[in-house]
# Entry
Amino acid sequence: AQSVAQPEDQVNVAEGNPLTVKCTYSVSGNPYLFWYVQYPNRGLQFLLKYITGDNLVKGSYGFEAEFNKSQTSFHLKKPSALVSDSALYFCAVRPQGGYSSASKIIFGSGTRLSIRP
Amino acid sequence: SAVISQKPSRDICQRGTSLTIQCQVDSQVTMMFWYRQQPGQSLTLIATANQGSEATYESGFVIDKFPISRPNLTFSTLTVSNMSPEDSSIYLCSVVGQGHPNTEAFFGQGTRLTVV
# Structure
C-alpha cells in the first residue's frame, strides 16, 4: 500500500536554531512530493514541491526540503527557526500515473512544530 | 494559483440535522476534492467531484451520508447528512492546478463543524 510517514508527532526547536521535520514515503515509481503548513483555524498552505531535478528544493518562508531517492525521504528544513514557524506541517505524495490517480494526494499524519523564544 | 472560498467557516449543529458546505473557486477546474480532518488527525479524502458526473467516493464514505453536487466548473457542495458527534471535523475543499498533474493542490480555509 502507498503511504507517507511522519515519524515525529511534535518537534521542539529554539528560535534561531536549525529545524528538520522528517518524512518518508512508500510509493511505487517516481512520485511528486509536497510540503504543506497549517496554521490554527486555517486551511493548508503550500510550501514547496519536488518534481524532478535538483534534490534540494526551496520554498516559501525560507523553508527547503531535500529529496533522497535511496532513502525515500523528503525532509523539510530551515536553517534558522522563527517563533512564527510554529504550526502543523504535512508531507504529501502524489503517485505518478493517469490523470485521476495522479490527482489523488496521500498525506502524512502531520508534525506539530513548536519554536520556543 | 487558485483562490478557494468555503462557506461556512464554522458551524455548531444538532445531531440528526444536515449541513451543506459550499466551495467556490476563482477559476475553472476539472476536479474538486473534499477532505475531512478529524481533531488531531491528518487529512482523509472523502470524494472527488467531477462536473457533470457523480462523485467518486473513497472507501468508508458513501453518497447517502456525504452527497456532493458539482453543477459547474467553479463550484461544489458537500452535505454532511444525519450528523452525529463523530462527524465533528474540519472539512476542506481542494483543487489541483489544471493541465499538469505535477502541480500542487490548493485548499480552502476549511469548515470547522461541531455536532452536539
Q: What stands out?
A: Residues 20 and 79 of chain B are 4 Å apart (CA to CA).
